């Protein structure tokens, strides 16, 4: 029973240790999976941001260069272009996607706007009275090219990006300044059409107001997004640039979290299934092996196991250990069988077997060698006094037990012979022979005493 408890304890320890390792492995696999999923999500978000950036550049260039074609007409004939401003602007807006209105400002004073509706407040505006806007008008004049202003707040209300184009009546000398043309691009419409506002799970920030690039003012998002950005890139605009940053929030979906938990518990489940499959196979193997080494009647070890165990004790690895063997014979067993029957004999054998197991130490081996002969292997014997004490305990315990047969109480009587490895050395046959001889001597002594 003690051996079985030890085996059970070892199995439990091995199982728990394996479970701990598999739990760690499962967590490691889940962490790797989570990192991979987040990386995939980040890659998808990066692709989404790059696509939105590309669309933003394309939409801005398309709308801005419409005003460039309008400026060409004004450079050729300012008067005719001014007279037909509404007709020309109508065609321009039909081709535009995010243009809110088109304005002309000879001498930097807004004279016409198209469409007029919603832009009445801007008519008559002298840019020189609005420093923030006049600065952009002057910048376009100095560059003699398209200048992107904004995003900024319009005089007539709303936020927009303004593409300003200077008009010179002496093109290409560009000395005689006529005024400027402006294409007002709706900021929110532009960003929405590019998909900037539709990007989920990412904080977007853009800087570079008035096309000043990376060092410019932030006009979308926060500075924190730039500080913790997972992606930063340049947005090319006419004669300038913006700088876009994105901080990804790669939160896994509920389904992905569920699948990762399923992956974790699947690994643990597979381990438990494999462990118990191996355990069942091992149990069957151990049971078969035990049956091969077990005496059917008494459930003690059989002769084959006892001899193999002795051989192992006498091998090189065990020679330093001193042990003794007890050859035990049941006195009067034939008479019990003949007088009371084989059932009574079997009960007596089982009684003796149980008594021997109960009387010896947990480290000792008890085997039935055949018939009424038993062998006890006493491991780690320190001296003869210890051996004599064990023999006395066996005799007193076993011979105090009894069985009932046909109304008669039968008590066992044992003949015991002892031989120790220290006497014989490493000869198994000689060791067993000496134990048998001493057992027969003890049997004769008992017979003489009884007679």
UniProtKB/TrEMBL annotation:
CDD domains reported for this sequence: GGDEF (cd01949)
Chain ranges of the GGDEF domain: 321-451
Family matches, as Gene3D superfamilies: 3.30.70.270, CHASE domain
Subcellular location(s) of the protein: Membrane
A Gene Ontology biological process term: signal transduction
InterPro entries: CHASE_dom, CHASE_sf, DGC-Regulatory_Protein, GGDEF_dom, Nucleotide_cyclase, Rev_trsase/Diguanyl_cyclase
UniProt keyword terms in alphabetical order: Membrane, Transmembrane, Transmembrane helix
Top-level taxon of the source organism: Bacteria
Transmembrane segments: 7-30, 265-285
GO cellular component, one term: membrane
Location of the CHASE domain: 114-199
MF-aspect GO terms: catalytic activity
Pfam families on file: CHASE (PF03924), GGDEF (PF00990)
Protein name, per record: Sensor domain-containing diguanylate cyclase
Organismal lineage: Bacteria, Pseudomonadati, Pseudomonadota, Gammaproteobacteria, Alteromonadales
